């Protein structure tokens, strides 16, 4: 079957499924492979559960006319996404960066959906499978699609950019994330800038944070750029009013009181404001969209429980986001503060140094009550309490409960520190 015929079939059956446990009626099932599974083995099950067709890549599993054989199911999914992207009339905004991608994407979608029919990446499905699925979620009436792109090594953003073929792009920041895969901070900058390489070489528009020196340097002579700044009048001016604990910003004399905590979320809000302005969303709608956005999925959530004010930021962590969260927690007004910090992953040979620097920063900041959890934090030189495992922390907190305090919980996803809530 040719790609155009597969696309015609997709238009008749626009639901895509890659997991036989989540088959929907009349969907197209793509038999993808992973390290520990072969999707071809589940093609019959998918058809029995109601899938219209199954795309397989092993002849032995072409058991009926409803099984369509291609050389590579994943590559076919990606090519179908590119075909559909070019078939669609929607404008596409691509988004990447070290920190804040998902929150920024959700804020942009909240703002733009006030005026346009939009689709956006669901959750953080931002890899070589999730990005094609996002493109294939574009409907006939979709006007703008916001596509999040993640990466942990060189070449990945370039590959995804060629699939997405964005009309606009934005990089949230360049931080100390996935250092192991990228090969250090310079590698992160190079890897994330692959989005700029695509946009500039194809004469597309670039959104930027004009207060970020790296972004300014990268885009210095580029004409098609739209930016925000706290002070540079060449760009759209947005002011930070306060972050205690929630971010309050001001644009054109209008204050916007968000439900987001931390100065690091200011630029995320600014990106959404800037894009709203560019796409002519009324200012009152921009304000309403950002003020009504409530973070979830363990991202900078503020939870009040049993006399505690908890900032739960346990979705992920790297040295840049960890330090930003600590900087914000320093200015929170509270009589008693506690920190529960978990290991940061994917730092490679920098792991020992980066964890030591976080411990040193906590000491220099005068935080009295700091609990460090994980094998990496267990190696640092510090007077703070250290726990090699979550269970050891759990046992300690059960005997020494935290009462009437402000508490920051932050760590990498693999640490699953949201479990602390059950102990508290």
Automatic annotation (TrEMBL):
It is found in: Cytoplasm. Pathway: Cell wall biogenesis; peptidoglycan biosynthesis. It comes from the Bacteria. GO terms for biological process: cell division; cell wall organization; peptidoglycan biosynthetic process; regulation of cell shape. Belongs to the MurCDEF family. MurF subfamily. InterPro entries: Mur-like_cat_sf (IPR036565), Mur_ligase_C (IPR004101), Mur_ligase_C_dom_sf (IPR036615), Mur_ligase_cen (IPR013221), Mur_ligase_N (IPR000713), MurCDEF_CellWall_CoF430Synth (IPR051046), MurE/MurF_N (IPR035911), UDP-N-AcMur_synth (IPR005863). ATP binds at residues 97-103. Involved in cell wall formation. Catalyzes the final step in the synthesis of UDP-N-acetylmuramoyl-pentapeptide, the precursor of murein. Residues 299-377 form the Mur ligase C-terminal domain. GO terms for molecular function: ATP binding; UDP-N-acetylmuramoyl-tripeptide-D-alanyl-D-alanine ligase activity. It holds the Pfam family Mur_ligase_M. One of its GO terms (cellular component) is cytoplasm. Keywords: ATP-binding, Cell cycle, Cell division, Cell shape, Cell wall biogenesis/degradation, Cytoplasm, Ligase, Nucleotide-binding, Peptidoglycan synthesis. Its EC number is 6.3.2.10. It catalyses: D-alanyl-D-alanine + UDP-N-acetyl-alpha-D-muramoyl-L-alanyl-gamma-D-glutamyl-meso-2,6-diaminopimelate + ATP = UDP-N-acetyl-alpha-D-muramoyl-L-alanyl-gamma-D-glutamyl-meso-2,6-diaminopimeloyl-D-alanyl-D-alanine + ADP + phosphate + H(+). Residues 16-60 form the Mur ligase N-terminal catalytic domain. Coiled coil: none annotated. HAMAP family: MurF (MF_02019). This is UDP-N-acetylmuramoyl-tripeptide--D-alanyl-D-alanine ligase. It is an enzyme of class 6 (ligase). Residues 96-275 form the Mur ligase central domain.
């Amino acid at each position: 079957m040719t790609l155009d015929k597969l696309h015609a079939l997709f238009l008749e059956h626009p639901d895509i499924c890659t997991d036989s446990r989540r088959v929907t009626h009349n969907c197209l099932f793509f038999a993808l492979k992973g390290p520990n599974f072969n999707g071809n083995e589940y093609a019959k099950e998918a058809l029995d559960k109601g899938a219209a067709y199954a795309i397989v890549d092993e002849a032995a599993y072409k058991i009926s006319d409803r099984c369509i054989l291609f050389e590579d199911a994943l590559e076919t999914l990606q090519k179908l996404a590119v075909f559909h992207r070019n078939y669609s009339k929607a404008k596409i905004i691509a988004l990447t960066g070290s920190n804040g991608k998902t929150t920024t994407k959700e804020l942009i979608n909240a703002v733009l959906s006030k005026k346009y029919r939009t689709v956006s990446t669901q959750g953080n499905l931002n890899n070589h499978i999730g990005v094609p699925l996002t493109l294939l979620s574009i409907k006939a009436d979709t006007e703008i699609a916001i596509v999040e792109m993640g990466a942990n090594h060189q070449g990945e953003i370039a590959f995804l950019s060629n699939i997405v073929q964005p009309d606009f792009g934005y990089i949230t920041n360049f931080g100390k994330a996935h250092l192991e895969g990228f090969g250090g901070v310079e590698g992160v900058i190079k890897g994330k800038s692959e989005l700029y390489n695509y946009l500039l070489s194809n004469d597309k528009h670039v959104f930027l944070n004009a207060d970020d020196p790296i972004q300014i340097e990268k885009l210095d002579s580029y004409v098609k750029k739209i930016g925000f700044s706290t002070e540079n009048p060449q760009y759209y001016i947005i002011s930070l009013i306060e972050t205690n604990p929630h971010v309050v910003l001001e644009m054109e004399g209008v204050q916007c009181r968000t439900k987001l905590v931390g100065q690091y979320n200011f630029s995320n809000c600014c990106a959404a404001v800037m894009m709203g302005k560019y796409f002519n969303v009324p200012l009152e709608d921009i304000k309403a969209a950002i003020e009504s956005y409530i973070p979830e999925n363990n991202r900078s959530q503020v939870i009040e429980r049993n006399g505690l004010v908890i900032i739960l930021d346990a979705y992920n962590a790297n040295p840049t986001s960890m330090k930003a969260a600590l900087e914000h927690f320093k200015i929170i007004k509270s009589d008693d503060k506690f920190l529960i910090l978990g290991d940061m992953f994917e730092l490679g040979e920098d792991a020992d140094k980066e964890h030591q620097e976080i411990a040193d920063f906590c000491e220099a900041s005068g935080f009295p009550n700091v609990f460090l959890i994980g094998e990496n934090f267990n190696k640092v030189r510090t007077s703070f309490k250290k726990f090699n495992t979550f269970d050891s922390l759990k046992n300690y907190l059960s005997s020494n409960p935290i009462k009437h305090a402000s508490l920051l919980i932050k760590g990498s996803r693999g640490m699953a520190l949201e479990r602390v809530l059950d102990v508290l």
